[in-house]
Amino acid sequence: MRSPAIVFLSLFAPAAASAQTGATCRPNPHLARALESYRNVDYSGAAGVLQRAIEYYGNCRDDLAEIYRLKGTIDAIHGERERCQRDFEIFLALRPSFTPGSKEPGKIQSCLELALATPPEKREIHLEVQLAAKVEPKTPVPVRIEVRDPLRLVAEVQVLFRREGLKVYTVLEARADDRLSVVIPSLALPADGGYAVEYFVRAVDRWGGTLAEVGSAKAPLRFWVGP
Amino acid sequence: MSAEHLSPDAISDFVMGTLDDAERTAFEAHVIACDACSEALAAEARVELSMPAIAEAAVRPDQCISCRRLTVEDRCGHCGAARVAGGYRTRAVLAQGPKGRVYLATAPDGARVALKELIFTQVPDFKSVEAFEREGQVLRQLEHPRIPQYIDSFTDGEGVNMRFFLAQSYVEGESLLERLSTHRFDEREVRGIAEQVLEVLVYLQGLSPAVTHRDLKPSNLIQREDQSIVLVDFGSARERGHTVQGTFAGTFGFAPPEQLVGIVDATSDLYALGMTVIHLLTRVVPTALDVSYEFTKANITPALRRWLSKMTAPRPRDRFPSAAVALGALRGLDSERRRVPTLAWIFGAAAVAAGGIAASTWRSPVLLPLPVVSAARSGALTVDSTPPGAQLVLDGVLLFKEGGDPLVTPSTLERLEYGRDYRLELRKEGYARVERTIRIDATNDGSIQELVLVAEPVQAASPSPSGPPSSPPPPAPRTPRPRAPASSAPARPEASAKPSSTPLESPAPKEAPGCEPTPGEPPGFINMDSIPWTEVFWRGTSLGETPLSRVKLPSGCVQLLLRTPDGTLEKKISILVEPNRTKSFRVEL
């Protein structure tokens, strides 16, 4: 019954203020530089910048996908077959809808095909969230999350929630595990009438880059608090 | 609830969530207006926040990987070994010293890494911090299969509790120092080790600016199960060309004398490698080594002894000038009883040839005693070719080893007379001959020069039907090799795209007139892409498919042929390759 303090922190304490800013991802400036190097046929230069791009904190999922796609391409150019296959597997995990074309150079195409040959269950990141559609006020709400991460990329799972009408999300973080439960504390759900809470869940890598999401900052899920 | 300050019980009740709505509203109104209560509340909340973490840790204590005591902290309270650092979970202590430890750790993605930790007992030691940062910087730039791959570097903690961490790929194996305690190395093994290390040093010295390891020794050479050698610990490494500082980095005995005063050059690592090899052979640590005496005990060939003497010469100018030259010389040695030919054999062969014996044919070994050129008036030359295995002909005389086998590249020709012009010819079946005039002079006393010759393939489409297969074609007339204009564009199309009538035919091997590599200069590199993607040929040899990265080519004007996989499009381009530089360009067909 001590956990409600978490809510207090996120609402009042200075230390928690930063936890309310992480809802949206930031465009990665290193990715643009890496692409520029790639376009200038400077493959070694691009490879160096790409590592910085990966380590850039808070990558968007699309950016991450592009980073790994480019990294796979460059590793293929350098003849690093195992690395490029893993890069492309990560890319496919981040962009499952990707459909390969036939215009890729041979050595890149063959590496991509290797990644595509990996069964989806061995490369796709899967995030499943269970939460009641209606909860009681002043009651802790457990968010049950199941993570399937065959590529072992997910370092942390974040639950971001806000009372409908507010602009910022409060973030709850938990170290990644196959199954975990993150509790939205009771103090975050006061008993002042019925209201909706918006939330979404995302799995992030060790640099806070988004790997998978259920809901999103712009299209959150909702549950109802109160009568 | 008091109007002045909130009681600890009220704060606790609020944090516990036991206040009713009215009390909570009043409480919050007071906290917003009162800084003291706000701070008290934050302190209480921090305690609350830490409870779950403490509870979680308390139920899952780990055994310290170093002292085996139970611990729930990220760092063992008894011995200080890290349990978790920067997301890495340590598994074992691989090495430890007064300034830190090296852990075997698991990365968040499950990969095994070597996690190097720098610790401070009092205040951070500038030299140690600098070495640590330098190692990270150097490793980040390096990419070689025999150098651990840089993964991450970060700090943990603050002030005197600060730790520096460097994560790099874990090299599974045994250091040569460890191996020395259970194994006796023979000449064949140490030559293999030296060759592998020299290949790494050639890579490091080929970088711009070159990198000097500065602490090469048996404990920094890890032997994997497949016997390959990995060079680790770049904490003392330095980019050459930086200002020399009066600080010593390295290990006494293995570091050359001049390194004691902070002077390093390309020969420094060679000296250390030489001492390492001697250490492996003699099992005597260099500081206790009497080289001349211990050498007599080491069961090695005179050729290797000479090579080691040159590697470990006290004066840098007496050593091999670079790792490439040292490697060429090492490969030229014959570890058996065979020796490299001296001028004695060459003159002997010439004498036989003059006597009417067909000394210049491919299958006539010639071994005759003969006048020896004074060592004081002679030098040596290492000859290599691309591809290797070309037979050597000196002044029209085919050279053979003592055992009767033809002498092939890479090889070292010893005791070439100063100031004399020798005509050196390389022959390889399927390739055109290459000739050079070479001269050793007194300024290169005792040193070995390296001359890289590039063999030309014979045009496959027009083999000579008349001559015997083993008979090499006559020497191709040497055309002058003008340097391509320095201002030329990176890629200069010479022929427009055209359909090929015979897609699988071998591409034309010759350069366009006036476009040839510049002899005697170090090679350069190209990055290249094409639209659509193509296979790229140079002198009939495929360089691979585009995009190409860091492809090594001789410097000067080089003509490339680009061909699509279906053979429907092809294009010739001429490029100017600059020595030791990388040229990047894209071609549209």
Salient structural properties:
heterodimer, A: alpha+beta, three-stranded antiparallel β-sheet, B: 589 residues, alpha+beta, Phosphorylase Kinase, domain 1, Transferase(Phosphotransferase), domain 1, five-stranded antiparallel β-sheet
| Silhouette of chain B | elongated
Report the span from N to C terminus of chain A.
23 Å
Biggest sheet descriptor of chain A = 6 strands, mixed
CATH architecture of the largest domain in chain B: Orthogonal Bundle
Largest sheet of chain B: 6 strands, antiparallel
Low-confidence stretches of chain A: 1-22
- The rough form of chain A would be described as elongated
Describe the structure.
The complex is a heterodimer of chains A (227) and B (589). Chain A is α+β, with helices and mostly antiparallel strands. Chain A has 7 helices and 9 strands. In chain A, the strands form 2 sheets. In chain A, strands 2, 4, 5, 7, 8 and 9 form a 6-stranded mixed sheet that branches. In chain A, strands 1-3-6 form a 3-stranded antiparallel sheet, with no helix packed on it. Chain A starts with a helix and ends with a strand. Chain B has 5 domains: 8-49, no CATH class; 61-169, Phosphorylase Kinase, domain 1 (2-Layer Sandwich), CATH 3.30.200.20; 176-331, Transferase(Phosphotransferase), domain 1 (Orthogonal Bundle); 363-452, Immunoglobulin-like (Sandwich), CATH 2.60.40; 524-588, Immunoglobulin-like (Sandwich), CATH 2.60.40. In chain B, strand 7 and strand 8 form a beta hairpin. Chain B is elongated, with a radius of gyration of 33 Å. Chain B starts with 7 loop residues before the first helix and ends with a strand. Chains A and B meet through helix 1, helix 4 and helix 7 of A and helix 1, helix 2, helix 3, strand 24 and strand 27 of B.
Secondary structure topology:
The complex is a heterodimer of chains A (227) and B (589).
Chain A (H helix, E strand, L loop, with lengths): L4 H7 L2 H4 L11 H11 L3 H13 L5 H17 L3 H14 L11 H12 L8 E5 L3 E2 L5 E8 L7 E8 L6 E6 L3 E6 L10 E10 L5 E5 L6 E5 L2
Parallel strand pairs in A: 2-9
Antiparallel strand pairs in A: 1-3, 3-6, 4-5, 4-7, 7-8, 7-9
Chain B lengths: L7 H9 L4 H13 L1 H25 L2 E2 L6 E2 L12 E2 L2 E10 L2 E7 L5 E7 L7 H16 L8 E7 L6 E7 L4 E2 H5 L6 H20 L4 E2 L8 E3 L5 E3 L6 E2 L26 H17 L8 H7 L4 H10 L11 H10 L10 H12 L23 E9 L4 E4 L2 E2 L12 E7 L3 E7 L3 E2 L1 E6 L8 E7 L1 E2 L34 E2 L30 E8 L3 E4 L2 E5 L2 E6 L2 E8 L6 E8 L4 E7 L1
Parallel strand pairs in B: 14-21, 24-30
Antiparallel strand pairs in B: 1-2, 3-4, 4-5, 5-6, 6-8, 7-8, 9-11, 10-13, 11-12, 14-17, 15-16, 15-18, 18-20, 19-22, 23-29, 24-27, 25-26, 25-28, 28-29
